[in-house]
Specification:
Blueprint (H helix, E strand, L loop, with lengths): L3 H7 L11 H6 L5 E5 L2 E4 L4 E4 L2 H4 L8 H13 L12 H13 L5 E7 L2 H18 L7 E5 L8 H6 L16 E4 L14 H19 L4 E6 L15 H12 L2 E5 L13 H4 L6 E4 L11 E6 H8 L18 H17 L1 H22 L3 E5 L6 E8 L4 E2 L3 H12 L2 E2 L1 E3 L2 E4 L7 H17 L1
Parallel strand pairs: 3-14, 5-6, 5-7, 7-8, 8-9
Antiparallel strand pairs: 1-2, 2-3, 4-10, 9-10, 11-12, 12-13, 12-16, 15-16
Length: 450
């Protein structure tokens, strides 16, 4: 490895960072992470902290998951790559397919379409949902519905159904035929409604209204996260996703669950859809499927959708979609080991317990610091704080304060993520009680420094 001075000097001179202004990366050098172990990361200067970000929602099993590392190394020796386009396959993808079929059986999902990551999974589900209707002779069903504040990756399809202008405005015009309804976001919503159950019903009414306006026979699918993640960890009332499922069924609209974040235990249930008692038509997965150690994803497909495709005799179901790295054997081997270890450790239960501990600790911080306008969480290891400059008016915080908080918390022992006014916490699911205490202490120290 090059020495620390070289790395700090050269970081933004030859690369651009995702989700960052190029000049900001030059003027405010990022933390350079060089090592990781367990639930902790270390930077180029040797400073070690608990990773309260979990990589990027994806390192569920921590940084020392030897079974996954060994599976990657062994597969590289045996078969480092081969395509699974028509006419060829590999042993790993078949074994993984059976494993995923078993894992997602309670969700009613029986087939996997492999991708390279979350954005690819969203793109795949959007495309296959249109094709599903065309196979059935419903060519007019081309539109998509989604939630404001939702996040569905950065491909043009995903960006088009995204509900956050930060990921849209600079790249417009985006894909036509994408329409958004209000999210069940109790802290800020157009109805000025703070009761979660009442807000859920208002959002469902807005969905019904939009379907009536667009015409149900023009809509292919609705895509949603069971708990909104990158938009600021927005958990809906328990009635919301079942309500969406019911409305979609009434109008022949497919439901795509974007579980790139929530699948594999993060909510305290094995999937976010299962958390709310819903069976989607497609489920987008990635991130935790390989513990972040290899880029890989899978779209899981419901049995009734499978039947429409597999019973086609006219050629309409031929899939003209895929990626060079769909079904990459190294990624599949990593996923086999990761899912096996995920189940062995039963991480969903620890996510529920440690998530409750973290959520309660954040509520105590709310009592002590007026800069915290809202605390969100209570469903596994997905928590957020929304910062404000005035708690009464909910006036948003200035851009500098969250950055100061992040730096101070890091110096005090925890890496946190700030996104606009939100502090987002998504640590590994193998987090210990002591790790949670460290995160809370670091945040307290950070707030005290403001």
């Amino acid at each position: 490895m090059k020495d620390s001075n070289y790395l700090k000097e050269r970081n933004a001179k030859s690369i651009w960072h995702p989700m960052a202004h190029p000049t900001d990366s030059l003027n405010n050098p990022p933390t350079i992470v060089t090592e990781a172990e367990g639930t902790s990361i270390s930077d180029v200067d040797g400073h070690q902290v608990v990773d309260a970000v979990g990589g990027l929602w994806n390192v569920n099993l921590g940084y020392s998951c030897e079974p996954v590392k060994a599976a990657i190394a062994n597969q590289l020796d045996r078969l480092p790559y081969y395509s699974i386009f028509r006419g060829t396959s590999n042993d790993c993808v078949i074994e993984l397919g059976d494993m995923l079929q078993d894992f997602f059986a309670p969700d009613g999902l029986t087939r996997a379409f492999y991708t390279s990551g979350g954005s690819d999974s969203v793109e795949t589900a959007l495309r296959l949902s249109r094709q599903y209707h065309k196979i059935k002779g419903q060519e007019a069903r081309t539109k998509y519905l989604s939630l404001k504040k939702g996040y569905h990756g950065t491909h043009f399809g995903g960006a088009s159904v995204n509900g956050n202008a930060n990921f849209r405005t600079a790249y417009e015009p985006l894909m036509p035929g994408c329409f958004h309804i209000p999210a069940p976001y109790t802290y800020r919503n157009p109805f000025n409604e703070t009761d979660p159950e009442r807000l859920a019903q208002l959002c469902l009414q807005a969905l019904e209204d939009e379907i009536a306006f667009q015409g149900a026979n023009t809509i292919a699918a609705l895509i949603m996260e069971p708990i909104l993640g990158a938009g600021g960890v927005i958990p809906p009332h328990e009635s919301f996703m079942p309500g969406v499922r019911k409305i979609c069924d009434q109008h022949g609209i497919l439901l795509i669950a974007d579980e790139v974040i929530t699948a594999f235990g993060r909510t305290g249930s094995w999937t976010g859809s299962r958390h709310w008692g819903v069976k989607p038509d497609f489920m987008c997965t990635a991130k935790a499927i390989t513990n972040g150690y290899f880029p890989f994803g899978a779209v899981m497909i419901a049995d009734h959708v499978v039947e429409v495709f597999e019973r086609d005799t006219e050629g309409k179901a031929a899939i003209g979609h895929g990626y060079t790295y769909s079904g990459h054997p190294v990624g599949a081997a990593a996923a086999i080991a990761c899912v096996t270890e995920t189940l062995r450790l039963n991480v969903k239960d620890n996510a529920a317990a440690r998530g409750q501990q973290l959520f309660e600790g954040l509520q105590k911080l709310y009592d002590d610091f007026d800069v915290i306008g809202d605390v969100r969480g209570g469903h596994g290891l997905m928590c957020a704080l929304e910062l404000v400059s005035d708690r009464t008016t909910k006036k948003p915080i200035d851009k500098a304060t969250p950055v100061k908080l992040q730096k101070a918390a890091y110096e005090s022992g925890a890496m946190i993520r700030v996104s606009g006014p939100n502090v987002i916490l998504s640590p590994p699911l193998v987090l210990t009680a002591e790790d949670v205490d460290t995160i809370l202490a670091a945040l307290r120290s950070g707030f005290q420094s403001l």
